[in-house]
Amino acid sequence: MFNSSELGDELQALKDEASRLLSNGAEGMFDVAKNRADAIADQIKAALNELGKTLNEQEDHAEALIAERPVATMASAFALGVVVGFMLRRH
């Protein structure tokens, strides 16, 4: 009537299958997460490269403006220093 060895075998088979399914699911989730992280990393690299190019262009533009008006640049820097000095003195 009741065979404990058959029940034990079925429980072992069920345990093995559940274990296999869980390990495959974890590997699949890991692969999906890794692929998503790689895609985000590529987007960040592209954005940083574009930012670097923009900053280089703006640096060249700022250098040109400073070279064209050195006296005005020095006067502006001095005035800014005075303003910052007064602000820091109050706090």
Question: Can you describe what's shown?
Answer:
With 91 residues, the chain is mainly alpha-helical. It has one domain. The protein is 95% helix and 0% strand. The chain has two helices and no strands. It has helices at residues 4-68, 70-90. The longest helix is centred in the middle third of the chain and has 65 residues, at 4-68. The termini are far apart.
SSE topology string: HH
Largest sheet: none
Poorly predicted segments: none
Number of helices: 2
Please provide the count of β strands.
0
In total, the number of domains comes to 1
- Report mean pLDDT, rounded to a whole number: 84
Class from secondary-structure proportions = mainly alpha
Query: How much of the polypeptide forms β-strand, as a percent range?
Result: under 5%
Summarize the structure.
The chain is mainly α and 91 residues long. It is built from 2 helices and no strands.
Fold topology:
Layout: H1 4-68, H2 70-90
Features:
91 residues, mainly alpha, 95% helix, 0% strand
